[in-house]
Design a protein that fits this description.
Blueprint (H helix, E strand, L loop, with lengths): L6 E7 L10 E7 L6 H9 L3 H7 L10 E5 L8 E8 L6 H17 L4 E5 L9 H16 L18 E7 L3 H29 L7 H13 L4 E6 L1 H7 L2 H7 L7 E7 L12 E11 L19 H16 L5 E10 L11 E3 L5 E3 L7 H14 L4 E6 L3 H7 L4 E5 L2 H14 L3 E3 L4 H6 L7 E2 L8 H13 L3 E6 L23 H11 L3
Parallel strand pairs: 1-6, 2-4, 2-5, 5-6, 9-10, 9-13, 12-16, 13-17, 14-15
Antiparallel strand pairs: 3-4, 7-8, 8-10, 11-12, 14-17
Helix pairs in contact: 3-4, 4-5, 5-9, 8-10, 9-15, 10-14, 12-15
């Protein structure tokens, strides 16, 4: 039976550095600032241990540099974690998110149950509420550890799996703003980790029916959320041939999951309702066009787009955002079977457009085209789809950025601003008629791959755009950043990173003008 994962909570409180009772006290240090009085007092209590570590060069205060000092009961905290903030002039809320994540990851590796964080916010010119949100998100990101099925430590099963983090601040006005930001960050960070857990779970545990059950459970907890699930029979009645074709080979039948969030008051009408459409292929073998076996285990994360949509919808409801949002999760398993779709088949999609199948491993676009058309049927004014769609995008951008495609430059600008704010990086990629020409078929309306191996991310996006009609639309290809890159492994453990959850929530908060 799966175990519960570590419960992470974050709060802000007043305390002197030496009085903070915690397994780990993380102390942020800037490279360009002399120690403030609180750090000088702490150093004195520790018999100049901080000064000595800096003098020896064992700690530089460069971004994310760390050093551990064991306090020998000279202060309340058992360990002091020095952590570098870099140059104060370059510090922003993303700096504090990364540092908080690093501190939480260190605490998790040390099996600490309590973490205190001490930063001199007055040194950096930052929005304290925004910093509070970023710190809470960072603690959730770095403190996350996926160990549901690890039984090696069952002898300690009675130990509470918790990480309680406290951000220290002695100014009442800053404490109030910090706490407000932390409350938002707690919801967003928890949502992102929920997305990560869905993707980290194996495909024999997570499949379309379990995602649908999770969505229904989320909807039951919030009166402003409703959930509708189209099962295989209903999808056939609607003639949603794209998603049906992909799921035909599996015993786990496909499902289209629709979560509608309608707040009591809608503040932003211009782009509302917004549709978030996520690819949720719970396992992708490639189907008959089967993938190589090496690395195929990672294809349990091919549902990353759908997981981020589900997590975002949960957080949207908890945050009570004043904007209408519809989440559409296209869930299927792509494996060979007696009823699998084949290269050479022609599939009629929900829109009525026909598609010649040339590669069954180009399945994501087949489920998304039905989801995008459904968003149009539901009269959504803005449609954003997200998917681990193409290896070609990862080749182009590496694991550090998601590819962004759109038919609306204003929407691109909004997503780019949300990307900067959330620190989930995107890069605007090209589109155009030349890519659309590549996916025209001679025997059907479209074909599901382009003419060559070149520009695969662009031709895939061009395919999806055919179903967006004239609606403001964007496509985010997260094949690269679906799991922890070498850069992210500095601040979190390996596995899914829930990419897209923070991005969506930042975007929607901006659109709702909060």
């Amino acid at each position: 039976m799966a175990k519960k994962l570590t419960k992470i909570t974050v709060k802000a409180a007043k305390s002197q550095y030496d009085k903070a009772s915690a397994d780990v006290l993380a102390l942020g240090i800037f490279t360009d600032k002399k120690p403030d009085p609180a750090i000088i007092a702490l150093d004195k209590k520790l018999d100049s241990a901080i000064s000595q570590v800096k003098r020896t060069g064992d700690f530089t205060a460069e971004p994310l540099a760390t050093a551990i000092i064991y306090t020998a009961s000279k202060i309340k905290a058992k360990r002091l974690l020095l952590i570098g903030l870099g140059d104060s002039k370059k510090a922003d809320h993303n700096t504090f998110r990364a540092v908080a994540s690093k501190a939480a990851m260190k605490a998790t590796k040390l099996k600490a149950k309590s973490l205190a964080l001490a930063f001199n916010f007055s040194v950096a010119k930052v929005d304290i509420k925004k910093v509070g949100q970023a710190i809470a998100e960072g603690i959730h990101f770095g403190g996350y550890k996926y160990d549901e099925f690890v039984t090696a430590d069952d002898k300690n099963k009675n130990d509470k799996k918790i990480l309680t983090a406290t951000v220290i601040e002695n100014s009442d006005s800053k404490l109030k703003k910090l706490s407000a930001g932390i409350r938002t960050g707690q919801i967003i960070g928890s949502a992102q980790n929920f997305s990560r857990t869905l993707c980290n779970r194996p495909a024999n545990i997570t499949y379309p029916a379990t995602i649908a059950a999770d969505a229904k459970k989320i909807a039951r907890t919030n009166p402003n959320l409703t959930c509708t699930v189209y099962n295989e029979k209903q999808l056939k009645a609607k003639k949603a041939g794209g998603i049906l074709a992909v799921g035909a080979g599996s015993g786990h039948k496909p499902a289209m999951i629709i979560l509608k969030y309608k707040p009591k008051k809608v503040k932003s009408l211009a782009a509302s309702p917004v549709a978030l459409v996520g690819k949720a292929i719970t396992f992708d073998s490639g189907g008959i066009s089967i993938k190589p076996s090496a690395g195929m285990d990672e294809m349990k994360m091919d549902m990353s787009g759908g997981a981020s949509v589900l997590a975002a919808m949960d957080a949207i409801a908890k945050l009570k955002l004043p904007i209408e949002v519809t989440g559409i999760i296209c869930a299927a398993e792509n494996i060979p079977g007696p009823n699998s779709f084949r290269p050479g088949d022609i599939v009629t999609t929900l829109s009525g457009k026909t598609v010649e199948i040339l590669n069954t491993d180009a399945e994501g676009r087949m489920v998304l085209c039905d989801g995008i058309h459904l968003a149009n049927q539901l009269k959504c004014k803005t449609i954003i789809d997200i998917a681990t769609l193409t290896g070609a995008c990862a080749v182009a951008l590496g694991k550090y950025k998601a590819g962004l495609f759109s038919n609306d430059d204003k929407l691109v600008g909004k997503i780019e601003a949300a990307s900067t704010d959330s620190d989930e990086a995107v890069w605007h990629m090209p589109g155009g008629d030349e890519y659309a020409d590549e996916i025209k078929s001679k025997i059907a309306d479209l074909k599901n791959i382009g003419n060559s191996r070149y520009g695969g991310a662009c031709t895939a996006a061009a395919f999806l755009e055919q179903f967006a009609s004239k609606t403001s639309w964007a496509h985010i290809d997260i094949a690269g950043p679906m799991d922890a890159s070498d850069t992210q492994k500095k601040v979190t453990l390996p596995g899914s990173v829930g990419f897209g959850t923070r991005l969506f929530l930042s975007l929607l908060m901006k659109m709702a003008k909060i």
